[in-house]
Specification:
158 residues, mainly alpha, three-stranded antiparallel β-sheet, globular
């Protein structure tokens, strides 16, 4: 049985034992089960799972912070008397090779307010993103590559 499935089952068992299936309790059960599995399997050759789970939580935290920032910027733009929009389409070169990574990247970009993943080139080397605020193209590309793409590569291509 994979460690991820075992972790999920232990989290569900925790929620059943406590009688509360709220998201916070399930998350606590997941983290508790992760710690127990780490204690039980840390000496075996199961290290990949114990590296991937914190990386997934890191990506999730980065995404949530980025969404909050983008929402605040969008609210400020909409509520200001003059909308300071600088819309543009930016070509972002891709290093991701996996299909799942490309799908996740374009969805994460699209879910962030003010940006929209438009297309990926046929050779899968360039992703086109529409943004409402383009201050510096190099900085925007660096933000996508060092923010989302690097984290996805660490998770999916490690």
């Amino acid at each position: 049985m994979s460690l991820f499935l075992l972790n999920i089952l232990l989290a569900l068992a925790w929620a059943a034992l406590t009688g509360r299936f709220e998201p916070v309790n399930l998350l606590f059960g997941f983290l508790l089960a992760f710690a127990l599995l780490w204690l039980a399997f840390r000496r075996r050759n199961e290290g990949r799972y114990f590296k991937q789970v914190p990386r997934v939580f890191e990506l999730l935290a980065f995404f949530l912070i980025d969404v909050v920032r983008a929402n605040l910027r969008l609210a400020r733009t909409v509520l200001s008397p003059r909308m300071n929009l600088r819309p543009a389409v930016v070509a972002v070169p891709l290093d991701l090779k996996s299909e799942a990574g490309l799908v996740l990247l374009i969805n994460l970009v699209t879910l962030t307010p003010g940006t929209l993943g438009l297309d990926v080139s046929t050779d899968r080397r360039i992703m086109y993103i529409h943004t409402l605020w383009l201050d510096a193209p190099e900085q925007f590309v660096r933000g996508i590559k060092q923010g989302y793409e690097r984290r996805l590569m660490r998770i999916l291509e490690a």
